[in-house]
């Protein structure tokens, strides 16, 4: 279990290989999101066909439903959902932010009421590691407090210091789980808000923490993207080069290029499948909505440059019709295409870094994608 850098571009963009208990993952990598042990609208064969060797699941949601013990009894998360690749699990820290009206935070952990039935639950740094161990995921993250945006430095510091203490408590919990037989990569959370001094402190702490990677949280929570990339680029340079950097919850096609330019290796986001369910298509010449009137008699593929089976077999007219008619097949087919596009972009970025032409390839892609109609 190791990370090997194969090339680094002058911009800071990197290409490498993460060796995991489930085989190698080439980076840069975009990871489809399987929040509840399912990539929305797709089945396991679709995920395999996409070639996705790494995905994200959410331990908070799986803890609540179907329950940790159910997944464990099924033989673990991989067997439960029929996926043999690398699964990293989100700790539930983002839900601490997004479900703020249902929880209370103290220095020991988080008490919250389930958004499903109102039942009360308690998360601690140690119990979150225990949940991930029971699920049998391959990459484990830590309980964190993600400050809302906007957030003054005093509040962000309190959140960072709490997150840091929780990280320190997670380290022995991970070690104990490994002694009990768990095979995992440890990706603790990196916070600090949008304050450079706090991000620098967080980076120094993570560099000294025994871990295989780092999960970068606290971005894309309401700030503009110029702020995101400026802060991200300023702080990733402080992180150890021998660990993969996972930027959580970020993932439009442009985000892939911009994130990698900041030195990020892995990303995930629900964006490709979420917008697909509303008809938004990603294509080489730019995004568009397939339900628009201009495509009602367009019998060409979603993207003439795309090699996915959806583009090989179905037309814009047909797929737009399915979505307008609320036929369930539309969600699968459009979601598959968008995820295939994201995988292709990640592969293109990797090839550009390896060939030493990242900057020109990025400019060429964005000129077409953002200049298209």
What does this structure look like?
- The protein has 373 residues and is of the alpha/beta class.
- It has two domains: 267 residues, Alpha-Beta Barrel (TIM Barrel), CATH 3.20.20.105; 102 residues, no CATH class.
- It is 44% helix and 17% strand.
- The protein has 14 helices and 17 strands.
- A five-stranded parallel β-sheet has the order 4-15-14-13-12. The chain has a four-stranded parallel β-sheet with strand order 5-6-10-11.
- The longest helix has 27 residues.
- The chain is globular, with a radius of gyration of 20 Å.
- The model has no long low-confidence stretch (mean pLDDT 95).
Fold topology:
Blueprint: E1 3-8, E2 14-20, E3 23-27, E4 29-31, H1 44-50, E5 54-58, H2 59-73, H3 77-81, E6 86-90, H4 93-98, E7 103-106, E8 109-113, E9 120-123, H5 125-135, E10 139-140, H6 153-179, E11 185-186, E12 189-190, H7 196-207, E13 214-216, H8 225-236, E14 245-247, H9 253-261, E15 266-268, H10 271-276, E16 280-281, E17 288-289, H11 309-313, H12 316-324, H13 329-355, H14 358-369
Parallel strand pairs: 4-15, 5-6, 6-10, 10-11, 12-13, 13-14, 14-15
Antiparallel strand pairs: 1-2, 2-3, 7-8, 8-9, 16-17
Helix pairs in contact: 2-5, 5-6, 7-8, 9-13, 12-13, 13-14
Summarize the structure.
It is built from 14 helices and 17 strands.
């Amino acid at each position: 279990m190791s990370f090997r850098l194969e090339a680094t571009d002058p911009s800071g963009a990197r290409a490498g290989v993460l060796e995991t208990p489930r085989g190698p993952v080439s980076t840069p990598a975009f990871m489809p999101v399987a929040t509840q042990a399912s990539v929305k609208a797709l089945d396991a064969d679709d995920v395999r066909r996409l070639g996705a060797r790494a995905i994200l699941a959410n331990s908070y949601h799986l803890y609540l439903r179907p329950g940790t013990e159910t997944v464990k009894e099924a033989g673990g998360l991989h067997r439960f959902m029929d996926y043999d690749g690398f699964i990293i699990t989100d700790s539930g820290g983002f839900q601490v932010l997004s479900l703020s009206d249902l929880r209370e935070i103290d220095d020991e952990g988080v008490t919250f009421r389930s958004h499903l039935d109102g039942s009360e639950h308690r998360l601690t740094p140690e119990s979150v590691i225990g949940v991930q161990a029971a699920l049998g995921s391959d990459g484990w993250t830590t309980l964190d407090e993600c400050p809302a945006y906007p957030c003054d430095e005093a509040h962000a510091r309190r959140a960072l210091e709490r997150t840091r203490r929780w990280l320190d408590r997670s380290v022995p919990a991970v070690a104990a789980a490994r002694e009990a037989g768990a095979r995992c990569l440890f990706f603790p959370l990196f916070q600090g808000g949008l304050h450079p001094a706090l991000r620098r402190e967080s980076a120094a702490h993570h560099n000294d923490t025994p871990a295989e990677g780092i999960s970068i949280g606290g971005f894309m929570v309401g700030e503009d993207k110029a702020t995101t990339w400026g802060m991200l680029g300023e702080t990733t340079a402080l992180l150890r080069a021998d660990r993969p950097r996972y930027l959580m919850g970020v993932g439009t096609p442009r985000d892939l290029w911009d994130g990698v330019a900041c030195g990020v290796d892995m990303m995930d986001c629900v964006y490709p499948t979420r917008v697909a369910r509303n008809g938004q298509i990603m294509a080489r010449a730019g995004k568009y909505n397939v339900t628009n009137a201009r495509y009602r008699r367009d019998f060409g593929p979603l993207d003439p440059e795309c090699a996915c089976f959806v583009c090989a077999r179905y037309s814009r007219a047909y797929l737009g019709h399915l979505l307008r008619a609320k036929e369930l097949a539309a969600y699968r087919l459009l979601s598959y295409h968008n995820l295939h596009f994201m995988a292709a972009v990640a592969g293109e970025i990797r090839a550009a870094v390896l060939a030493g032409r990242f900057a020109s390839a990025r400019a060429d892609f964005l000129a077409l994608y953002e200049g298209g109609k």
